[in-house]
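On clarity, I found the account of how folds are encoded harder to follow than it need be. For illustration, here is how one protein appears when written out as sequence plus C-alpha cells.
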Amino acid sequence: MEAPRSWRAPALMIFVIALVAQWCGASMAASCSFTISNYCAQTIWPATLAGAGTPQLATTGFRLDPGQSVQVPAPAGWSGRVWARTGCDFSGASASGGVAAAGATACQTGDCGGRLECGGTGATPPATLFEVTLGKGNGGAGDLDYYDVSLVDGYNLPVVAVPQAGGCATTGCTADLNRSCPKELQVDGGGGGTVACRSACEAFGEEQYCCSGAYATPATCRPTAYSAIFKSACPRAYSYAYDDGTSTFTCNAADYTIAFCLPPTGSNTSGVTPLISSPANGQNGAGGSTPPPAGNNGAGISSYQPPPPTTPTDNNGAGISSYQPPPPTEDSNGAGSTDQPAWMTMPSSASKRMIPPSSASTRHNQLWSLLLLLLLPAVFLFRF
C-alpha cells in the first residue's frame, strides 16, 4: 500500500534536514587553519607538504616578509608538515616560467627543488619542521589533532606552534641552535656564519643516528650525544626519530599559529612561561644547552673525529613526498605548558592575508549546494 502523502512530506523533510546537517558539518570540519607568522628580521619563504593520502594545501610555498602573517586553510584529516626556507632567490625559476631546472637550488636552507611553490616536494635538510595530523572532524571521542615540532631533519630557524584552543600545549624550539651547533654539523652560509645545524643522521649517514637498519626500533635506536644537545636546548621538540614521549601533543583547535623566530624586542611577554629557561652565562644562548663532557660520544669535542660524511641512508623521510608524521603516543599531552605567549595573539588585519581554500574544497561545497537546490522543490511537490 502506498504511504499517505502526509507521511511522505515529513519523511522527506527529515532527509533534507539530515543532508543540510551533513553539509554544514563538512564545512565546519574544513575550518581549521594555520596562521604562519614571521617574527624574524629577515624574509622567509614558508612551505607546506601533505602526507600520503591527503591533498596539498591551497599554497605549498610563498614569501613572508618580517612582521607579516598568512592564514592557510586546511581540511579535516589533513596530515603534513610546515617549514620555512631562508636565503632564497627564485629569479632563475621565474625566468623559466616558474619551473626550476633539475637539481636547482634557490634557498640556502629548506629548499624544495628550487621552486617557490614546492608542489609536493619536501624540504632539503636541515630544516626545523612543524608536523601535524588533524582530526577527522566527526566530533567523536578521540577525534584529536596530533602535532609536534621536529629537529629530526636538523634545524634552521626557531619556531613555536600555538594551538588556538584552551588547555592545549604550546610546543616548539626557541633556542638559536645555529650558535651552539657542533662544528661537524654546521652549515656555512658562505660568509654569513652558520645558517643551519644538520642532524647527525644527515651529517654521517650511520644507522645508529638514522634509526634505520639494525637500529630501526625504539628499543635499539636510543638518544645520542648529538640528539642530547638538541633536546637540552629544545626539550619539547623531537630530537631523534623515537622521541615521542615528550614531543607529541594532542589538541582540537580551529587554528594553529606557527611563528618563526623570537618575539620582537619590546613585546609584552610578562607573565608568560617561556618554552625554555633563559641561557646562563657562558652557555652561548642555547637555552641552557652545553656541550657534553669528554667521553660522551665526542659530540662537539674537538678531539673527536667523526666518520667521513656520506650520502644519508634514511633520514627519517626528509624531503620525501610520502612522508607521514610519527605515530602519536597514548598520553603525550602532559608535557609542556598550556600558556600561550602574549606575542602570539592574532595579528592585525593590516599585516595578515588570507589564502582561499583549494579548488577541490570549493567544488565539494558547490556539489552539496546543487544537490540541496534539486531536492528542495521535491519537498513542495510531495507536500502539496
Notes: Helices lie at 5-29, 91-95, 177-180, 200-204, 207-210, 225-233, 359-383.
